[in-house]
Amino acid sequence: MPKDAIIEGHLNREKIVINEITKHTEILQAKLLNIIVPKHMAKNTFEKTLKNIQLKGSADFRNEGNKKIWYVEGATVAKFKELETWIKDLEKKLPKISKEFSNKTLTEKSQEVKWLFSLYQGNMSFLNLMYLLEKTPKKEYEKSLELMHRFLKINVSVWKKDKDSEQLVAELMISIIKTNPFFSDILQVLDESRKINWLGDRLPDRL
Questions:
Q1: Whether 97 contacts 89, CB under 8 Å
Q2: The domain 3-71 is classified under which CATH number: 2.60.200.30, 3.10.129.10, 1.10.10.10, 1.20.1250.20?
Q3: Strand runs (DSSP E) across the chain, as ranges?
Q4: pTM of the model
Q5: What angle do CA 125, 126, 128 make, to 5 degrees?
Q6: ω into 181 cis (within 30 of 0)
Q7: What is the pLDDT of residues 120-168, one digit of tens each?
Q8: Mind listing the pLDDT tens digit for each residue in 165-184?
């Protein structure tokens, strides 16, 4: 068989498998096997095709117990590559970013710090929720966490080196406490406790 025909055959088989995985979003390998074999190819060819697809990054699988679940991550991989490139660019420009940040007013710095941290916090909450709902594969979740950690680390390194770092960190902590329901409830309880103590100190003793 001519070499071109062999290559075309490989690509066609890969396309068949990828299309089937995409159709189901996620699919057990055993179920995928039943759909593809023997209608489109032999079992050995199917297994080789899966390996090729994974090596090319066209699809991937995760293990759940003794089961393999396949999924297409083309768009996800592209998103991660774009985000990672952006973060690497920030890391390279760190001295410049630090200088630009130091030239801003205290108010501008404070607003930027709060906004960037809220961006990080919102993304982390979304990522954790999607993973717990089993909407995000573990590999994708771990990669997301790594990138978000690098994003925060870059910004924290800028804030720490700034001459107003102590005030900026203090304002950020106050903002977190005020906007977080857990901390807000604690502050409310403490406030009520102070009022009660204040009144108790001023009430006359009863016989």
A1: no
A2: 1.10.10.10
A3: 26-28, 60-64, 67-71
A4: 0.55
A5: 65
A6: no
A7: 988 888 888 888 887 777 777 888 899 999 999 999 999 999 999 999 9
A8: 999 999 998 888 877 776 65
